[in-house]
Structure formats: C-alpha cells, structure tokens
C-alpha cells in the first residue's frame, strides 16, 4: 500500500503539477500587485474611485442590488487577464519566435499513412495523364467546376446570412 502511494507521488505529472501550483501561487501575487498597486490606482485617477461598488446600486423591496460590485470584479478580471497577456504571453511568444528564427522552424513530421496516400494519388494522376490524356483533362475540368460550384454556394450562403442578419438588426433596432 505504501509502495503504491510512493509510486503515485513520484510520478512526473504529480511533481509537475505541484511545481505548477507553487509557481502559479507566487506569480499570482506578482500579477495582483501589478493590478492593485499600479493599474487600479491609474483607473482611480481617471475615474475618481478605486472601485465601482456603489455604481448602479438599486434598492428593490428593501433589498439592495449592487451591479457595481459585479462591474468591479469584471474590471479586475480584465486587468489581470491583460497583465498576464502583456507580461507573460507576449514576451514568451517573442522568445519562441526568436528561438525558432535562430534554430529554424521545426519541421512537422507528416503521418506515414498520409505520405503514402499522397504518393498513390500522385502516381495515379501521372498514370491517368499518360494513358488517357482526355480523361485526365476531363477530371481536371470537373475538379475546377466542383470548386467553382462550392465557391458559388458559399457566396450564396454568406449573402443569405447577411440578409438574415440585416433583417434581424432592423427588427432589433426598430428600423423594420
């Protein structure tokens, strides 16, 4: 029983998860400090209050409904998300791009079955072109016509969608 517990604890993914939780907790303190001590005071300087708790407060049958508290939390969430994006995601993407430029883009390995199917397709195309050029030309023309028909159908669907959206907007905004 203890050996099974030891094996479970020593698994790589459990250790990785524990490290991620500890680092995430420490990093949350950094992001919260940025939001609470830098971004929120800037908003407070612009708006005049550090939060929106008293904004849009409504009393209904003696019960107070505070929409401002929700608004404050939404603003906090957006600030935290923006801080994480601009402090972590953007620099990390830049570092990855720089590394890939330095070392070259890693080539994605294509599945062996897909490679085999492409080779078969190419051989059949070459055979058809050599043996029966008229059939090959007809097949190419049929492919072009099918692609053209698909494009026309997609364009017609987009037109129908835009027309329905236009009608819906007119109904919503009272223009219809």
UniProtKB/TrEMBL annotation:
Gene Ontology cellular component list: plasma membrane
Region (Disordered): 149-176
Presence of the UniProt keyword Transmembrane helix in the record: yes
Primary location recorded for the protein, binned into one broad class: membrane
Coiled-coil ranges from the UniProt annotation: none
Subunit structure comment from the entry: Homopentamer.
Family annotation (HAMAP family): MscL (MF_00115)
PANTHER family: LARGE-CONDUCTANCE MECHANOSENSITIVE CHANNEL (PTHR30266:SF2), MECHANOSENSITIVE CHANNEL MSCL (PTHR30266)
Protein name: Large-conductance mechanosensitive channel
Lineage of producing organism: Bacteria, Bacillati, Actinomycetota, Actinomycetes, Micrococcales
